[in-house]
Amino acid sequence: MSRDTQLKERWEKLVDILSNQFSQGEDLDLDAIIYLIGVQEYGKVHREYKKDEKLNLMHIAICRLLEPYGFYEFEYFDDEGWPHYKVKENLPPLKAGEQSVLMKEAIVNYFLERKLID
């Protein structure tokens, strides 16, 4: 099985699992899944977030997802429990499709680590 085919199958399985759990079966998009990862990483799942906090949650998720690729490094948790990352290496310029594939791959790897999918 090619790497692309495997990624596609794992992505579809992951979207199905998360959509059934968090959106009554309506497929979650990439941004929604990134948001969920941010909430998971922040650790405060049962609360409402303001618009700027939602953006921060997505930023946390992106940093966490790209950390294994060497782009970010975790630094510390602040007094409110927000994780902070520093940039280790700037992302190379990517086309929209390339960005999407990179994020899907990083998300699949995140959930493989957590054994939600195999």
Highlighted features:
2 strands; 118 residues; 4 helices; mainly alpha; single chain; two-stranded antiparallel sheet
Characterise the protein shown here:
The protein is mostly helical. It has 4 helices and 2 strands. It has helices spanning 3-22, 30-42, 51-66, 96-113; strands at residues 72-77, 83-87. A two-stranded antiparallel sheet has the order 1-2. A hairpin with a 5-residue loop joins strand 1 (72-77) and strand 2. Helix 1 (3-22) crosses helix 4. The longest helix has 20 residues, at 3-22. It is globular and about 45 Å long. The two termini are 15 Å apart. The mean pLDDT is 94.
| General shape | globular
Instruction: Give the H and E element order.
Output: HHHEEH
Helix-and-strand structural type = mainly alpha
Indicate the mean pLDDT: 94
Total number of helices: 4
Rounded to an integer in angstroms, the radius of gyration calculated over CA atoms is: 15 Å
Percent of residues in helical segments? 55-70%
Question: Spatial order of the strands in the main sheet?
Answer: 1-2
Name the beta content range. Answer: 5-15%
Q: Give the end-to-end Cα distance, rounded to a whole number of Å.
A: 15 Å
- Poorly predicted tracts of residues: none
Q: How many strands in all? A: 2
**What profile does the largest beta sheet have?**
2 strands, antiparallel
